[in-house]
């Protein structure tokens, strides 16, 4: 009787040790894929954050005074920004930028209220230095954030144009946010 309970205790102890290893191997293919995707995402974010964009030289770009309604970004860059927005911003700000349970609207009337008479540089700087909360600036480099801003402007109703909006403070600082004419 005494020997039996010893073996029982030993067997229980062994199974307790073995369980975590067994549990790891019992991850479903979906769980494994999810874990791998999370790891890849974290690595991509780290790599992107580690490779800041060089500002584009002012001599190479349009730095004239414009507004967000002058076709100041390209459709292609808004598309690139959309992919990043969908992954990193949409959960809080909504699929159309009209806000959600986790964050305010960043388009429409709310955007007008907070940002009219500011420059795109101000808006970009806020996004780059504050968003997403707790991991600001980590989802890509400066140009990636400029592309997200292009997509936000598109969601707000601005049409794309022929030339790209780039990471250049003279350019971004001279594009003004005004109400739709
Ligand atoms: C976890 C939720 C969350 C995520 C994800 C998130 N935000 Fe926000 N965002 C907020 C909250 C909350 C505020 C309001 C607080 C503040 O202004 O600091 C805000 C404010 C903003 C504002 C200012 C709005 C205004 O007019 O006051 C901008 C612009 C913005 N976010 C852009 C972004 C972008 C771009 C991303 C993706 C890179 C992003 N946010 C991701 C929660 C989030």
From TrEMBL:
Alphabetical UniProt keywords: Heme, Iron, Metal-binding, Signal
Domain Cytochrome c: 76-156
Residues spanning the signal sequence: 1-23
Record carries keyword Metal-binding: yes
A matching Pfam family: Cytochrome_CBB3
Domain of life assignment: Bacteria
Protein name (database record): Cytochrome c domain-containing protein
Organism: Devosia yakushimensis
